[in-house]
Amino acid sequence: MNDFKNNPLYKIMHPKNIAFWGASSNSMSMGSIQLASLLMLGFEGNVYPIHPRDKEIKGLKAYSRISDVPEKVDLAILVIPTAIVAQVLNDCGEAGVKRAIVVSAGFSEKEGKEGKELQKRIVEIADSYGIKFLGPNCIGVVNSYLKLNTTFNPYDAAPGFIGMASQSGSFITQMFGHLSKFGLGFSQALSLGNEAMIDLSDCLEYLAQCPKTKVIALYIEGIRRGRHFVEIAKKVSKIKPIVSYYIGGSEAGRRAGQSHTGAMAGPDRLYDGVFRQCGIIRAHSIEELFDFCYVLGTQPLPQGNRLAILTHSGGPGAAAADSAERAGLELAELSPATLQALAPLLPYTASVKNPVDLTFAKNLNDYMATLPRILLKDQQIDSLFLYCLMPQQRVMLGVLGTGQGLEQAQQIVSEYVKGQSAIAANLSLESGKPAVGGTFGDRSELFVRELQDRGMTVLPSPERGVAGLGALYRYSKWRKTFS
Amino acid sequence: MNDFKNNPLYKIMHPKNIAFWGASSNSMSMGSIQLASLLMLGFEGNVYPIHPRDKEIKGLKAYSRISDVPEKVDLAILVIPTAIVAQVLNDCGEAGVKRAIVVSAGFSEKEGKEGKELQKRIVEIADSYGIKFLGPNCIGVVNSYLKLNTTFNPYDAAPGFIGMASQSGSFITQMFGHLSKFGLGFSQALSLGNEAMIDLSDCLEYLAQCPKTKVIALYIEGIRRGRHFVEIAKKVSKIKPIVSYYIGGSEAGRRAGQSHTGAMAGPDRLYDGVFRQCGIIRAHSIEELFDFCYVLGTQPLPQGNRLAILTHSGGPGAAAADSAERAGLELAELSPATLQALAPLLPYTASVKNPVDLTFAKNLNDYMATLPRILLKDQQIDSLFLYCLMPQQRVMLGVLGTGQGLEQAQQIVSEYVKGQSAIAANLSLESGKPAVGGTFGDRSELFVRELQDRGMTVLPSPERGVAGLGALYRYSKWRKTFS
After folding, report:
1. Do A174 and B316 count as a contact with CB atoms less than 8 A apart?
2. What is the pTM of this model?
3. ipTM computed for the complex
């Protein structure tokens, strides 16, 4: 814990107060919007806008110079023209500010010498005052637990367990909504920009120490200190899973990345090798990055790769089975005891193989409760995929047909859904084995909301659920080599 | 059109009236729920429940025999125990009913001889009366334009342009909600079950003739009449795109499929070859199946594979670029005229390469209007991917900052979003080139709803948008060989 508080990033992510450059009476400027977003989330420390002329900005007293601010400042945020960044860093140094986020762009990511020289100069200034800054050309950070969001988009997700470091800045802000789709959120998120002083390896080290972070997500366009990164990542992945999305592997992705933050990318296969030797789980799309984080951050590690699939719709069950192979999992052979326990619970139309396809339930409570528990007890099963279709509408039609009024029927169905969700959400905790759900529904449905909020990991399709379990298995193999 | 009306499936999909077996006073039985669902969507023809004892079911007069029904019946739907299916089909034949849907299971999909013999017998009975039936072991059909839904789940999507034939039954019903996520819907959907009399090739022929169907989705576990299927598919794909998801390729998927409908599956590579020689676009997941249908059913065919990417966030732009290669597309080289036209519109932080990364807009209207139009005019560009992040929240923060009240600010932002969406939705119509959007938002956002409802194809991530454009390009190559 002491390591954590002594980490150079700690004060950037946990400032007691902030001096903010670039907000003004022009409320549509990027700086004004970033300040508005910071205030909106409810950051509780003092915020000091610095502006040469304006006396009040967003209801806060503004100061013309950092030296006028009445207390020692923890963090400086700079959203100002490239040309004056050096001067402001100088002022910060004189005022004893030790941490900064430089949002301003126009440095080493630009073609030509000028930007690179400018970047070198601001690093020299920072060094001379003992300042550590994030950026330049980054969008800032989120510490959801501290209500700190320095990016330009309001943070509307919950405080969560995913710690992210990203070489694309605005990318982080767009994931706020994406994570909300699962009821998830960031614990901490850092946009790296040009990594002039703080790079991916530093963030990895920091997120490993962060107690709120259960899984680390990396968005990588190119790694700067390769050997150092490998060394750090190897250590971190022994205690926390790391999931990486690398886009520099294709020629096209590489070119896009270069013009973006100026990082050097290498061939895809090289990165594949690097990730493998570090125990980093690789994702191949943005969706996969967070799907994997969701599973790796919530599920216990499996003992092996034998998967059971439970469904009451043939298609999604077959799709899950089909994707198991691609995910590196094999379909478990059900033990005789399991077959015997299942038999009386299944209708004659059901398939008592793996996938177990219920077709329809003889007893509505079996599907989310009795059946998965039987499967998870089987010694020949290491993990479970559960297709989560709540026949809610069907049950509703049935209940309405008994002559219940609409309101009463809704009440009955809602109680039923909540009860079923509560049981299903405990499956992995009870069994110590991973149990992941997949659905084509979303959080507009009570069932999905209830399951996710009660702690069940539910992904938006059978294939994505199974792929997540595959990633979990790969990580379990890595961990086993050290246990 | 005459072909369409003469197709044996026409009357199954367009019945004037329906006789329904299996609904009863037990409102939780599958038959009762299917009847409730049929009535709920508002099917306008007469519906005659047939039941040995009950006199009224769901507010409809029930008949004890089909021979008592006062008019000639177009379609019989059977949700009854396996053992009495033969007798009821016999009764139907006597009463002059020529079309049926047999939902009942327990036929050739079961292990052992008995089910197979039973299935043979009901086919013989049907043949002797000139009856054509869908199933057995299927869940029925949807004709959204006729408000016909014989499945057990309420149809809550819009009438749409995707025609589907599926070897998994309940699968169709679960896609209702999935399609709603994009504002899409089925034109017609058929669940095939054991295909005793009507198989995949028959449905393909029917959907090719259906004027409401712009693209055909197939969910395949195994093809029965291989040569016939190839012949039909080759013809159909010259006039309408076919997208197929085949799950029998892996050992696990094959086993799952076999126990499900008893279809024979073949090795993955074999099916790959079959699809290729028929011009069928293959999808590798359920999500991809409908992503591809969405793009192929809405977008004009591209002249080549040169893709332009427009983004204002580096990460999603790079992800799109990275996935282009995998989708068989190459990044277009922007022409000098385009570069010249773009230059004054981009801020100094922007990247004027492909992907065009705006970083931020000098003029808020440029991103969805001026910039994509410039790119689509370029002769070196065949298709456009547009990352659709509406900086709605950011604009909102800005507008609020000007001192507007919340309601007024919401009004301003909403007008702005609508205006931008209207322009962007016309891009492919104006240019004759495909323009597909990708976003991490969903229809809970006004921007996404407006874009999709006005006709822009917007998928839930950059990678999925680009993959859709890749599928469109593959289909365009197939079509070119015949033009």
Report:
1. yes
2. 0.92
3. 0.89
